[in-house]
Amino acid sequence: MSVISVQNVSKAYHLYHHPFDRVLGAFALARRQKAEFWALRNINLRVEKGEVFALLGPNGSGKSTLLQVISGILQPTSGRVLCSGRVAALLELGAGFNPEFSGRENVYLNGEILGLSRKELEQAFPRIEAFAEIGQFIDRPVKEYSSGMYVRLAFSTAIHVDPEVLIVDEALAVGDAIFASRCVQKFEELRRKNVTVLLVSHDLGLIKRLADRAAFMLEGRIVMQGAPKDAVNHYVGFVLDRERDGKERSTGRLENSVADKSSFRHGDGASRVTDVQILSSSGEACAAFRPGESIVLRIRAAFQKPVSNPVVGILIRNRIGMDIFGTNTRLESAELGDFEPGEEIEVEFELDCLLSRQEYTVTVAIQYWNGLSQDWLDDVLDFRVEDSKDVAGVLNLNTRVRHQKIVPAPAREPSSLIL
Question: Strand 52-56 and strand 196-200: pairing?
Fold first, then answer.
């Protein structure tokens, strides 16, 4: 059952060269003076009940505009949005609160706007106040709040009014680490309560951890949507490609079977990865390891252009796409030298397996010394760690336990004092 349905939504803004042209435009006298900027173009999106859906993309890609359209703050130029259930939206800092009102008054005002009765708000207020943790400032005007206090109260209000849909736009970025951790726990609690969450964040780790699906937006369009790790890979690839000053993004067809296994590939093509292998310490192909064994990652690449001091790197992720460990030849103080077109290189990384029992993927890359990519292949191979022992987390640190029983010393009887 879809809670949010965005159907062919576009949003255009009229741009004027001079403020007075806007006045003339109201009388259809300024057609030549205005231009159109399309913040959204033909957006189609469905979010199911109880789903956590994330939007990511660079600034200006249309994420916040889309959330405002879904929240009903903006009207689309074309298309329509269907949204069922009580919607609580936490958008840009400053939206929704009256700066002259106290925190308490703003909580009651926002709750009543969302349709809660005074009795329901009185019952919810102690939980809102406790989660926000702003102390005596709850009765001070919010214009006196720091940005962190403001967002704590706004977020606490949004999640304690029993929303069926929660929309959050990067507002948590101003909170401290402790508050961010509590928010993550709250998101997971909302998921268990089958609350639908639409989230915008530049915290890629948070998206991988929380989201069921994600969409990558660019220039007002949804470029792709699917698994969070795939959307994150596309976003990271776009960012790295954009940093190549004046170089054209590689859009050629993948040329070898190794690259065909990769979830996403990007780079300027100065070098190309031709082979990636996962080996045991004896040099045999291996896809399963036990804690304590050696994992050998062998990468081979061919150079298409002259390159000085390339950097070869690896990145290990777990099954939900979280980065577990990464290193490269620069960090390991291994300078590879200069290469001419047609020359090749082979690099091996040998690692001690300190991972817990689960599945992992390997991402490999060849970069310039400054970090820009020549060839980057996400999740090109996978392997698993087998162990009879269960541990929490992703690391198995070979714990050794020592214990002894402590027997309390017998109580001494008080000595008698003879006078």
Answer: parallel
Residue 183 CA to residue 201 CA, distance in Å, equals 13
Instruction: Kindly report the backbone phi and psi dihedral angles of residue 97, in degrees, each rounded to the nearest multiple of 5, phi listed first.
Output: -110, 140
Q: What is the pTM of this model?
A: 0.66
Please say whether the beta carbons of 312 and 272 come within 8 A: no
Q: How far apart are CA 107 and CA 336, in angstroms?
A: 60
Strands, sheet with 87-90, edge to edge from the N-terminal-most edge strand: 87-90, 165-169, 196-200, 52-56, 213-218, 221-226
SS3 at position 305: coil
The CA–CA distances, whole Å, from 388 to 102, 134, 214 equal: 57, 47, 34
Which residue from 84, 12, 1, 3 is spatially nearest to 43, judged by alpha carbons? 12
Spatial CB neighbours of 237, under 8 Å, sequence gap ≥ 6: 264, 265, 266, 376, 378
Listed residue (236, 228, 180, 235) closest to 207, CA to CA? 228
pLDDT digits (tens, 9 = 90+) for 306-346: 999 999 999 999 877 888 999 999 999 999 999 999 999 99
DSSP type of residue 138: G
The pLDDT score that the predictor gives to residue 33 is: 54
pLDDT for 7-63, tens place per residue? 999 999 877 666 656 655 555 555 555 577 899 999 999 999 999 999 998 888 999
Q: According to the 3-state scheme, what is the secondary structure of 171-218?
A: HHHHCCHHHHHHHHHHHHHHHHCCCEEEEECCCHHHHHHHCCEEEEEE
CA gap 126, 107 in Å, rounded: 11
Whole-angstrom distance, CA of residue 301 vs CA of residue 284: 20
- The parts of the chain modelled with pLDDT lower than 70 are 1-2, 16-34, 92-96, 171-178, 240-261, 413-419
Count of Cβ atoms closer than 10 Å to residue 49 Cβ: 15
The candidate with the shortest Cα–Cα distance to 107, out of 165, 73, 158, is 158
The answer to whether 211 and 54 have CB atoms below 8 angstroms apart is yes
Q: Which amino acid is at 301?
A: A
